[in-house]
Every structure is written in C-alpha cells, then in structure tokens.
C-alpha cells in the first residue's frame, strides 16, 4: 500500500475541509491509472465522473451490471460514454453463481427474506465488485454522510478494510442532496431519467421505486423490508446471521433445500 493506515488517517484529517475537486485531484495524482471511479447511474456518480474527467480525461470508471438494472441506466451509460469519450469498464456477476442461485431460490428471491436479498446482492453486486477492486489501489465513491445512518461516519479518505486495504475516497462525504443537483444543473451534467419520475436513489429495477418528495432518499430501496439496513454490502459488510453460510452453500453448489417460504411479489 502506498500509504499506511496512520498516513491515511492524517490525510483524512488534512482533507476534511478540502473541496471535492481537491480530494479527487489528490486521488488522481496519487493513484491513476490504478484508480477507479465507481459508477452506478446515481446523481453523485455523475458529479464525480464529471469532476474527475475535467482533471484527467483518461480517468478510469467502472460499474457492476447486476443484470437487473433499469433500461434508463443503460441509456445513461451510453450517453456518458459518448459525451466524455470514455468506456465504462463493466463487471458482471459470475454466470454460474447466478444460475445456481436462481435454480435454488427462484428469479425474484429477494422479496422472500432479508437473508435472500443479501444473498442476491452478494452474488450480483458484491462479488463482481471484489473482482473489480482487486485490479486497483484506490477507488472513488459517491457516498454522502446524510444518506443513511451507516454512512454518517465516513471520511473523505479512508482505508477500505473490506476490499484488501486499498484506499477509498469519498469526496462528496459532506455534500447535501441539493449541492449534488446544483452541480449537475450548473455544469450541464447528464443524469438518470428516473430522477424525473420520483426516484431519489437508483439501484436494480425490482428493488427500487419512486418516493415522495419528503421521503428519505433511500426509502425507495428494498422498500418491503422492515428494520433492515438499506445497504447491499458493497460499502460495508453485512452481518445477517445465516447469510454468509447460505451464500457459501449456494455458491459451492451444496444442496440445502432451496425452497424457502413466502411468495414473490
Ligand atoms: S438490489 Fe435486488 S436485484 Fe439487485 S442485486 Fe440486490 S437483491 Fe438482487
């Protein structure tokens, strides 16, 4: 690692009051081309991509295509590639993992239990993410502290203990939703059409829905779940009891019954 844990902590303190542009500039200077900008079609990702591209048009952007995304997100991906003249590096889930999971639990397993939803996120999102991050030394995310309780304590620069101790950079940590949209409008940055239809956070099609203007931005994610973290495991490890065991069993192809209660909706 280019910086040890103590140095990263000192940098986090030093950059706490720095602008998002300065934080991205620091990341590019120290890690490009071993730096990935994370992109999933969210407004925050568009701000980061635009800011990074203005500093270095060769900046590398990656996404995880779960296979369950909205058509609008794919359209935005194309628009981004055209406008910025870059190719987003797409990572897909392992097809045999998906086949095994769907054969055992059905195509819409996520509606049946929090555990199975986490399993789907693990197979379709977390595993491809781990593969992607294995190729770089640092990544930049659009996480903001006000998004959810689990994000309140993020630093602008931190060590990513969940992904091989690489560096995780969160330039928008102290931004508000309003600031994100001000940047987009002011700079003519393209954004996902779904925001025009009441979505405030963009994820997979079956697990995301529009919300009321006064709702929490992440209220439309996994809306049927009660008292479960609105996270998929990409930004924090999820401790959900039997989840890891089920994931391992499924992915190792070990039969464990597979038919779980509840019906899809
Ligand atoms: S958000 Fe839904 S469809 Fe997407 S990976 Fe997670 S559970 Fe699966």
Automatic annotation (TrEMBL):
The keyword Cytoplasm applies. Residues 35-210 form the Phosphoadenosine phosphosulphate reductase domain. [4Fe-4S] cluster binds at residues 120-121, 204, 207. Keywords: Cytoplasm, Iron, Iron-sulfur, Metal-binding, Oxidoreductase. GO terms for cellular component: cytoplasm. Its EC number is 1.8.4.10. Pathway: Sulfur metabolism; hydrogen sulfide biosynthesis; sulfite from sulfate. The active site is at residue 232. It is found in: Cytoplasm. Gene3D superfamilies: HUPs. Its main location: cytoplasm. GO terms for molecular function: 4 iron, 4 sulfur cluster binding; adenylyl-sulfate reductase (thioredoxin) activity; metal ion binding; phosphoadenylyl-sulfate reductase (thioredoxin) activity. Its cofactor is [4Fe-4S] cluster. One of its GO terms (biological process) is sulfate assimilation, phosphoadenylyl sulfate reduction by phosphoadenylyl-sulfate reductase (thioredoxin). It catalyses: [thioredoxin]-disulfide + sulfite + AMP + 2 H(+) = adenosine 5'-phosphosulfate + [thioredoxin]-dithiol. Binds 1 [4Fe-4S] cluster per subunit. It comes from the Bacteria. Pfam families: PAPS_reduct. NCBIfam families: APS_reductase (TIGR02055), cysH (TIGR00434), PRK02090.1 (NF002537). Belongs to the PAPS reductase family. CysH subfamily. Catalyzes the formation of sulfite from adenosine 5'-phosphosulfate (APS) using thioredoxin as an electron donor. HAMAP family: CysH. This is Adenosine 5'-phosphosulfate reductase.
